[in-house]
Amino acid sequence: MDLEIGSLSDFFAVFSWTLDSTKLFWFRGHSRSDYRLAPTALRYEEDEKRDKALSLVADMRRFVEMKLDRPPAADDHLGWMQVAQHYGLPTRLLDWTQNAAVALFFACCKDEDADGLVVILNPIELNQGVDPRSPRIFNSQRDVHIIEPYFTLDGRIRRNGKKTIAINPTWNTDRIAMQQGAFTLHGSRKFELDRSQASSLLYVPILSEHKESLLNELQRVGIGEMFIFPEPEHVCAHLRRTAKL
Q: What residues contact residue 168 under an 8 Å CB cut-off, 6+ apart?
């Protein structure tokens, strides 16, 4: 895409130029334009490391269940995978947001010397290849027969393996609510999401020289660290940064 995003008005103008207002879109912000659309557990080069990363969710459950105020149910495999994702374990989930401004924040908030990227996805189009009769975003109650097989997959690529799908969260937290979060769940056919799976993918470049001014504009409309991350340590970090201390 041959454009330069220098302001919020430039950013939101992209949608009126390119997106169908009758369709649903998700957004993801990358602070570096060379980041891949692959979840953390599936970015390792070796099969063994991918397998090891995926096995950590089961280990985590043994240690943290009693420490959570609202743990997922024992049979809520997607909920437990979200807990792991939330606390930094590698999983086969990739985070998205329904709020374009939140994605822009993530594209600008780190790596100030590198160009960033906002990626746009039509999640219903992505899922159409899995259930063409009723295209929709999958959830763990209605679509358990579609989602459950993903939790037994290993870290190997299979030629006829499971496709990447778009799913709604099941274990809701303040952070997911504030970020209007959603997920793609990556299967075993291809780890990285690309246009061969989702032709709707659109990439909006965010040049490094505009990151600071875009963050300032986002702050003025209420999109900052304290909004994105409601935990106390992020509130404190936001206050220090605002006070320039």
A: 137, 138, 139, 182, 183
